[in-house]
Amino acid sequence: MTDRIYIVDNRYYDTFCQTLGKGLRVLPSVTCKALDAPVSAHPDMALFSAGKGSLICAKEVYDDYVKMLSPFGIKLVQGEANLHRDYPEDVAYNVLNTPAGAFARFDCTDLQIVHLLEKKHIPKISVKQGYARCSSVTFGDALISADPSMIKAGKDARLSVLSISPGYVRLPGYDYGFLGGASGMTDESTVAFFGDLSYHPDGVKIRDFITKKGFAVKEVSHQPLTDIGTIFCIEL
């Protein structure tokens, strides 16, 4: 099994460690005060990873993440974009990397991420959805989303796509969050959700889609689905 470190919203760190995080190496996120409070501790708003040794971090939290991650031998590159609380000036690092390519609203994406994708020859797939990372659940060659632009782009990129109803995911401070922000891979074959898919009207369809792809589903039973800025994974 590949060695990994996971970063989760510091406000949900204890609950995560007691549920989905058992047996995992988990660290609490750094709060980025430049962002709107509800998403200020979401790791997918300040970090981007495109594989081993390729972690890019927002300049506002760069020093704190260096202190946190350098003891593990993780090297960070400081991003160039300045984050702000209002959309779309908050999405510079919210980029979704998949086997088909990286999905993002590239007119707002940090230039260090763009350079990294080009260096690694990762295709850039432009979408209208600025929150590309947290708007979609991804595993293997599959994508689950309620966002029309992500669904279309995923199909065009020949990913296996499941379209779901929007909403039904808590994000205190907003009307609702994204299912991608409530999910992540906790090992090579398990898709985990911070909450119970029974709270989503497409929960059965989501579980079936994942298991038919050969992946396991892990949930926090009897708890509403909550957007925590993804279960952010860093490969060592």
Write structural notes for this entry:
18% of the residues lie in helices and 24% in strands. It is of the alpha/beta class. The chain has a three-stranded mixed beta sheet with strand order 2-1-15. It has a three-stranded mixed beta sheet with strand order 3-4-5, covered by helices on one side. It has a three-stranded mixed beta sheet with strand order 6-7-8, with helices on one face. The longest helix is centred in the last third of the chain and has 10 residues, at 203-212. It is globular, with a radius of gyration of 16 Å.
Note the main attributes of this structure.
single chain, 236 residues, alpha/beta, 3-stranded mixed beta sheet, 5 helices, 18% helix, globular
Terminal residue distance: 11 Å
Structural class of the helices, strands and pairings? alpha/beta
Helical content, roughly? 10-25%
- Using the alpha-carbon principal axes, give the shape: globular
Poorly predicted sequence stretches spanning 5 or more consecutive residues: none
How much is the average pLDDT? 97
Strands, count: 15
Give a short account of the largest sheet: 3 strands, mixed
Number of continuous helical runs:
5
Radius of gyration, taken over Cα atoms and rounded to an integer in Å = 16 Å
Question: What percentage of the residues does DSSP assign to strands (E)?
Answer: 15-25%
Give the topology string: H per helix, E per strand: EHEEEHEEEHEEEHEEEHEE
Strand order of the largest sheet: 2-1-15
As an assembly, this protein is single chain
